[in-house]
Design a protein that fits this description.
Elements: E1 11-13, H1 27-36, E2 39-44, H2 53-63, E3 66-77, E4 80-87, H3 94-100, H4 103-120, H5 127-131, H6 141-150, H7 157-165, H8 180-189, E5 193-197, H9 206-214, E6 219-223, H10 229-242, E7 245-248, E8 267-268, H11 269-276
The chain binds adenosine monophosphate, fe (iii) ion (2 copies) and zinc ion (ZN).
Length: 287
């Protein structure tokens, strides 16, 4: 993006997944969708992995969509799972690669453990049925949810979360992760911007957002399909007071696996440029 000279009216989606984590689209397919919906700048932010980024960069070049190399880390603040996006990261940074190492094995073991819990609940699901769900990278709950749907144990993908896999449901298994401070440090070491993803969702509350700011987050998402208007407004106001930038995106996971449509959750290119300016400490935060 030509920062400062970007044409007005352009849109950015700074949060999206591919089949390298729990999305259903290949990077090519995701980027084609983004292009169809007028997105000029797209962040590819798979959960806990960098595996899809080189493919995304080439597909972006081929399709004329600028790609922001990203990642979405799961971590915990005050025992609540929160997600931190790293945007404009260098995917070859050793500290970042070190931070990512271990997540793949952890996520596979966790998926196996969820299957064991389902079996103990009387649901006859074999791990091979989870392996049969299309996936190119790390395991996530959506793969288990889809397997439950495929074998007819649930009628709908969402029902798998409601009955079995949601945070308070009986087959839920928490993730192990780096702490929030280490996660933010790894993103910064890789030259990236650390963004609190969908704060105020999934058990996170205002104190969690405030704690994330104290831990050195650079920005908060204010545009996301799970954020209601009041939550977005509070986050915008908080960002202003705390001297943080704002971000947003669709959190697209693919047809049937997404809450909001691609193209509906965007920020202006100018806002993305202001966010990018936080990379490498170019802007000193107030407050
Ligand atoms: P994991 O990182 O393996 O815990 O999986 C979390 C992912 O599952 C989220 O990023 C969403 O893609 C998906 N997810 C979580 N809760 C739900 C839900 N209630 N309905 C649909 N998808 C969900
Ligand atoms: Fe996800
Ligand atoms: Fe998330
Ligand atoms: Zn996400």
């Amino acid at each position: 993006m030509a920062t400062g000279t970007a044409p007005t009216g352009g849109r950015a989606d700074l949060h999206a997944h591919t089949w390298y984590s729990d999305g259903r689209d290949s990077p090519e397919r995701l980027i084609a969708r983004a292009a169809e919906h007028g997105i000029q700048l797209l962040a590819v932010t798979d959960h806990d992995t960098l595996a899809g980024l080189s493919e995304a960069e080439s597909a972006g070049r081929a399709q004329g969509v600028e790609i922001v190399p990203g990642i979405e880390f799961s971590t915990y603040i005050r025992n609540v799972e929160v997600h931190v996006l790293g945007l404009w990261i260098d995917p070859h940074c050793p500290a970042l690669l070190q931070a990512v190492s271990g997540y793949e094995a952890m996520r596979r073991q966790r998926a196996e453990r969820m299957v064991e819990k389902l079996n103990a609940l009387g649901v006859k699901l074999d791990f091979s049925q989870v392996l049969a769900v299309e996936r190119k990278g790390v395991f996530g709950r959506p793969h288990v949810a889809q397997a439950l749907k495929d074998i007819g144990a649930v009628g709908a993908f969402q029902e798998a979360f409601q009955r079995f896999l949601g945070r308070d449901a009986p087959a839920y298994v928490p993730k192990r992760s780096l702490g929030a401070a280490e996660t933010i440090a790894a993103i910064h070491a890789a030259g990236g911007v650390a963004v609190l993803a969908h704060g105020l969702v999934g058990g996170a509350n205002r104190p969690h957002v405030e704690a994330a700011a104290r831990l050195g987050i650079d920005a908060v998402e204010t545009v996301h399909p799970k954020l209601g208007p009041e939550q977005s407004a509070w986050l915008r106001e908080f960002a202003g007071k705390a001297g943080l930038a704002v971000s947003g995106g669709s959190d697209w996971h693919g047809e049937g696996w997404s809450e909001g449509g691609i193209g509906e959750w965007t920020i202006p290119l100018e806002a993305a440029a202001a966010l990018r300016a936080r990379a490498g400490g170019l802007v000193t935060k107030a407050g």
